[in-house]
Amino acid sequence: GLNLPLATDFQAQPGRGVSATVKGVTVHIGSPTAAVEWGAKAAVVDELVATIVEQSQSPVLVLFDGEPVAALGLFDAPRPESAAALQDLARLGLKSLLLSGDHQGPVDVLARELTIPQALGRLSPTDKATHIKGMQAAGSRVAMVGDGINDAPALATADVGIALGGGADVALEAADCALLVDDPRRVATLIQLARRTRRVIRANLFWAFLYNTLGIPLAAGLMVPIWGWSIPSSWAAAAMAASSISVVASSLRLRRVNLG
Length: 260
Prior knowledge:
By secondary structure, this protein is α/β, with parallel strands linked by helices. It has helices at 32-37, 42-54, 82-91, 104-114, 125-137, 152-157, 169-174, 186-219, 224-227, 233-251, and strands spanning 7-13, 17-22, 25-30, 58-64, 67-74, 97-99, 118-120, 143-146, 160-163, 177-178. 47% of the residues lie in helices and 19% in strands. The chain has a five-stranded antiparallel beta sheet. The protein has a three-stranded parallel beta sheet with strand order 8-9-10. A two-stranded parallel sheet has the order 6-7. Helix 8 (186-219) runs antiparallel to helix 10 (233-251).
C-alpha cells in the first residue's frame, strides 16, 4: 500500500474546505472563494476553474503554502432513492427546494434530473439558514433534510430538522430527529407517521374532554338536584381509570398504521 505522510493541525472549515500541515507544508483544499482568502491570486483561480465550471462541475482547489497546485471538478450523482423520495413528498402536498453549497451549474443539472422546481447554489451554511428564516417569515413551515456539517445551521433553524442516518455527528446533533437508515424515502414515512400521530392526539383530547365534561359533574353529585342522578364513588374511580385506558388503547392504533 501507499506510505502516506502524516497530516497534523487538521481543521475543517464548514462551507470553505479543510486545511492541514503535511511535512511542514500548509495544505488547503476547498472552494475557489476560500482559495483566494488563503492567498491564491483571483485571476489564477478564475483561470483554473473556468473549464470545470463550464462542464457543470463544482471546482475544488488544492493549495500548498497558498499556491494553487491542482484543481478538481466534482459532481454529486443523486442517490438512487432520491427521485422516489421527492415523488412521495409531492404526493403528501409538500414542495421541495434544493439548497446547496456547490456551484449553480451542477446544482441546476441535479435539479433538472430530479425535477426540483427551485434550486439555489453557492450557499454557505449561514446562507442556507438565512434562506430558511426568510421562508418562515413569509409564513411557510419548513422541514430541512441534511446529512453534512454544512447543513447543521439550517437543520437547527428549520421548524423541523431531519438528519439522515449516515450523516455527520454535528448534523445529527443539530436536527430535531434522525432517521435510523440512510434512505431519503423514509422522510415521507416520518411525515406520514407524524400526521397520523397528530390526528390521534387530537381525537384523544376531544374524547377526554367530552368524557370529563360529562363524568365529573355526575361523579360530584351535581346532577342530583336536577335529575336525581348520582354514581357511587367506586364507580367514579373505575370510570376515571377506564378513561385513561381508552386513551392508551386509542394511541395503540398507531401500531397498525400501514406506511407503505
